[in-house]
Amino acid sequence: MGCVSTTVARHKRQFLSIIPSAFTVNNLVGETCGKEIKVATMHERLLTMMELSNAFIALPGGFGTLEELFQMISGAQLNIHEKPIGVLNINEFFNGLLSFIDHAVEQKFITQRARKILISAITADEFVDKLQAF
Predict the structure, then answer these.
(1) How far are the Cα atoms of 123, 125, 132 from residue 49, in angstroms, in the given order?
(2) Banded pLDDT at 102 (limits 50, 70, 90)
(3) Coil, strand, or helix at residue 55?
(4) Which of 38, 56, 67, 92 has the greatest count of CB atoms below 10 A from its CB?
């Protein structure tokens, strides 16, 4: 998160870090730039993200990233929000996940309509274009 916020700040853009208290114990976040909101729990983090964000963008990451991504997708599917959600597929990191989701569509576990909730792009420029077209 620290690396991303530093890069965003360097390009004179806004960045909001929503940090659960558990992340601050061992400095899991590192240095951040921009505004920070401290919250007590991961659940509060997700609710705050859903309330304050204009869009949800996942970069390559682990279980926490995937959990937050799917929480936002579920929120959109249930009409809790109508914000764009996407993965920036750097170095094709998300190819396996995207293939799995497409397989779930083929197997009728995910509808075609629900599949369109998730945007993916390989470059930042393509990603921004897709977000703006959402």
Answers:
(1) 24, 23, 19
(2) very high
(3) coil
(4) 56
